[in-house]
Write a structure and sequence with these properties.
The complex is a heterodimer of chains A (370) and B (221). Chain A is of the alpha/beta class and 370 residues long. Helices cover 34% and strands 28% of the residues of chain A. Chain A has two domains: 261 residues, P-loop containing nucleotide triphosphate hydrolases (Rossmann fold), CATH 3.40.50.300; 93 residues, Alpha-Beta Plaits. Chain A is built from 13 helices and 15 strands. Chain B is built from nine helices and no strands. In chain B, helix 2 crosses helix 5, helix 5 crosses helix 7 and helix 7 packs antiparallel against helix 9. With 221 residues, chain B is mostly helical. The mean pLDDT of chain B is 92. The chains are: A alpha/beta (370), B mainly alpha (221). Chains A and B meet through helix 3, strand 6 and helix 4 of A and helix 6 and helix 7 of B.
Chain lengths: 370, 221
């Protein structure tokens, strides 16, 4: 490179008052994006009142259905889209105030990977990784010095002279990742990077992203429509629904105590919230004599392995029937769900619930088994 | 067939090749940038200039809708201004170029528009300037299609070049009309047709082979 990019290169483009976004790698401040009406269709409010910050060196996963505004959100960070209102601050630089020229400098510090990889079919793996360096006018010798280790980092040294058509999906995304890292960015944007890959390849790409985040200290903003992706790599999650952040927090907390309906529906399959069909059909909302009460017990963190079922039956002389359950690990912490039925009268059930809550377990009466 | 006739055919072939080669080169020099611009200057595109795009598009369409033989005659003053004469092989290059350039521009525009928009987005995301995007992404990615477009343009020029005999342009077409038709020499007509067929085959298969070689989307064994 002719000269390493310094932070004042960006500062000269625009002086940012050090606001709340100052200590975040990425900060969205009251961001709205409205796509104007076109061809008779109404204007689309893609994002509305977004306040979101990503701490340096962390991975924030943004999940939402298609049309929730995720793609727009991630494109605001490198100025591929401009917000209608609000600011987007990246590493202390207000990107919304930059000209196209100023944006080009920011873009060299923000890598991006894509769902469909977006590799040039006319270039080999090596030349694809070299492209952002050529664009930044890095001398040829320096390009060679920097591309080789990147290919090694993503495990593709032996494929350096292969064209994308000769690579598998996972290998293409690895080239995409190496390319995104070529200009040594501080922020990595991942736009549904694993959505076109099979589960096993997804796993390996996510592992690679995790290790890059750990080893290079890169801040990662990742958008996806799959909870399993969030769960595998993210520390924090934001749930986007109809252009708004409806839930935001630590992955473990959001997974184990989802508050918003959208979050719950995303989690249904992921954390054992979905009831097996045979059970769902037999559940009735109203209590009746002879109908055992169905109870969902959530085991979070330290209580995940408590033997509560045997304690319940000993303490209250109850028959506890296990209907479904799973024990799992989320963000490195154990988490379990158990659906049981208690054949007992109302007051006994109440006491059992109090007993469980006293042990720090979340409980929910989900119906009565007919 | 007399050696005299063969010599005429040989000279006419060289004339045709020269006219087509020069016209194709000049038309590419005009048509390639024009086509790239047409493909990238629409609303919200790299070099957004919708008004200019519309005007150029109209000019291109107007040129393309003029029958070639009319064009040859209509631009005689312009041809004379440019090369000092309105007859002969050199003069014929002017209308050939003017007819081929917008044709090539439209073909190139189509080839460029076929490039996946995701690649342009990726290039923008890495901080590429619009010119870098054209030079490093759009043209290299469209190259196999561009080669096929130019092949098609050269084949069309071979056909057009047969008409410039009308203004003393020379070449195979002229030979066929003057000897084969007007002097009732069917053997000359036949040999002209055979040479043209062979030329078109050569151009087309060379273009096809080159395009295939450049196309890295196909797996090579």
């Amino acid at each position: 490179m002719t000269r390493p990019l310094r932070s004042d290169d960006l500062a000269t483009a625009v002086a940012v008052p050090r606001a709340d976004g100052a200590d975040s790698a990425i900060a969205f401040e009251a961001v709205a994006k409205i796509f104007p009406a076109r061809g008779g269709g109404p204007a689309v409010r893609a994002l509305d009142g977004i306040d979101l910050a990503v701490a340096p060196g962390t991975i924030l996963g943004v999940i939402g259905r298609s049309g929730a505004g995720k793609s727009t959100l991630i494109r605001l960070v490198n100025g591929l889209e401009t917000p209608t209102a609000g600011r987007v601050v990246v590493d202390g630089t207000d990107v919304t105030a930059l000209t196209e020229r100023g944006l080009r400098d920011v873009r060299r510090r923000v890598g991006m990977i894509f769902q469909h990889f977006n590799l040039l079919s006319s270039r080999t793996a090596f030349d694809n990784v070299a492209l952002p360096l050529e664009v930044a006018r890095v001398p040829k010798a320096e390009i060679r010095r920097r591309v080789e280790p990147l290919l090694e980092l993503v495990g593709l040294s032996d494929k350096r002279d292969r064209y994308p058509a000769e690579l598998s999906g996972g290998q293409k995304q690895r080239v995409g990742i190496a390319r995104a890292l070529a200009t040594r960015p501080t922020v990595l944007l991942s736009d549904e990077a694993t959505s076109a890959l099979d589960p096993e390849t997804t796993r390996s790409i996510l592992d690679l992203l995790s290790s890059i985040n750990r080893e290079l200290g890169l801040t990662v903003l990742l958008i996806t429509h799959e909870m399993s992706v969030i769960r595998a790599v993210a520390k924090e999650v934001a749930v986007l629904d109809a252009g708004r952040v409806v839930e935001r927090g630590d992955v473990f907390d959001v997974f184990t105590r989802p508050r918003h309906a959208t979050t719950r529906s995303f989690l249904a399959a992921e954390t054992g919230h979905a009831l097996p069909p045979f059970l769902r059909e037999r559940l009735r909302p109203e209590a009746a004599p002879g109908r055992p009460t169905a109870l969902r017990i959530l085991f979070r963190g330290p209580h995940a392995t408590d033997p509560v079922v045997s304690q319940l039956s000993r303490e209250f002389g109850l028959d506890v029937n296990i209907l479904s359950g799973s024990v799992d690990e989320i963000a490195g912490r154990p988490f379990g769900t158990l659906v049981v039925s208690l054949a007992a009268d109302g007051p006994t059930v109440e006491r059992a619930l109090a007993f469980l809550q006293a042990r720090g377990l979340d409980t929910e009466v989900i119906g009565h088994v007919a | 067939m007399s050696p005299e006739i063969l010599r005429l055919v040989w000279e006419a072939t060289l004339d045709t090749l020269w006219m087509v080669a020069v016209a194709a080169s000049l038309a590419t020099l005009i048509g390639l940038p024009l086509g790239v611009f047409l493909a990238t200057s629409g609303r919200g595109e790299l070099f957004a200039a919708p008004a200019v795009n519309k005007v150029l598009g109209f000019v291109v369409n107007a040129t393309r809708s003029t029958p070639f033989i009319i064009l040859v005659v209509a631009i005689i003053p312009f041809t004379r201004l440019l090369v000092g004469t309105s007859i002969g092989t050199k003069a014929a290059i002017v209308p050939l170029t003017i007819a081929a350039a917008p044709f090539i521009a439209r073909l190139i525009e189509g080839a460029i528009r076929e490039v996946d928009g995701g690649l342009v987005e990726a290039a923008r995301a890495m901080g590429a300037t619009p010119l870098q995007i054209v030079a490093k992404v759009l043209v290299p990615e469209a190259l196999p299609a561009i080669v096929l477009s130019l092949t098609l343009a050269i084949v069309s020029l071979l056909g057009f070049s047969a008409m410039v005999g009308a203004v003393g342009g020379g070449g195979l077409g002229d030979l066929g009309i003057r000897y084969g038709y007007q002097r009732f020499m069917p053997d000359v007509m036949a040999i002209v047709v055979v040479v043209l067929v062979v030329l078109v085959q050569l151009v087309q298969s060379t273009g096809d082979r080159l395009s295939r070689r450049l196309n890295k989307r196909l797996r090579h064994g």
